[in-house]
Amino acid sequence: MSVAIIGGTGIDALAGLEAAGERVCGTPYGAPSGPVEAGSIDDVPVLFLQRHGRPRALPPHRINYRANLWALRELGAAAVVAINAVGGIHEACGPGQLVLPDQLIDYTWGREHTVDEGGDSPLRHVDFTEPYDPALRRALLMAAQEAGIACRDGGVLGVTQGPRLETAAEIRRLRGDGCDLVGMTGMPEAALARELELPYASICMVVNAAPGLDDQPLTLAAMGEVLTREAGAVAALLRAFLTARRRV
Length: 248
Prior knowledge:
Helix content: 25-40%
CATH superfamily: Nucleoside phosphorylase domain
CATH architecture: 3-Layer(aba) Sandwich
Largest sheet: 11 strands, mixed
């Protein structure tokens, strides 16, 4: 069984992946974001899917999350590690930080958020108390610790609709709600993984302070510079995690 990696903004390829080829998988919900790249890292089978497609074309609200998760499951994924570029709200979640959130609040709307479409099958009242798989989170955190990679344990991710960035007032509201991070692609991805019985965890790359929290102008160029640096840290963390998984 493979580990599936879902790449977010700035992660268009998976460092160290010995590719065996691309796989196309049809789903009951249409086409996923693109072909799934199959291969291995340190002899661990890996599936890689760029969430936004390649070249980037899909904004957060247009991603076919259902098709993406369904395809990864059908291609043999045993777990999913998602990479998300986010803004930092909590003072400890500044640009350049890696964070493994343990909770989320969903502010999105209009997205296809479930594979339960009624019919004869039982209702999918899945337990979503802990939206990220605890065992998978622990494995990632342990890999980070063993590899000497700084990674914050825990935080609440607020998932907004996008693609625009948030207003200062919206960030104040999210902070009041208890959010430490803000992003646009964490839901319904996490909930769909739970419905499909796929252990799921997120590695959040903080690429900017959320709007209104500092005096620095929010520019795509500055965010891109941070993304480039953090992509290397994410690649190192994934490799450490996969190497540890191979030893188990």
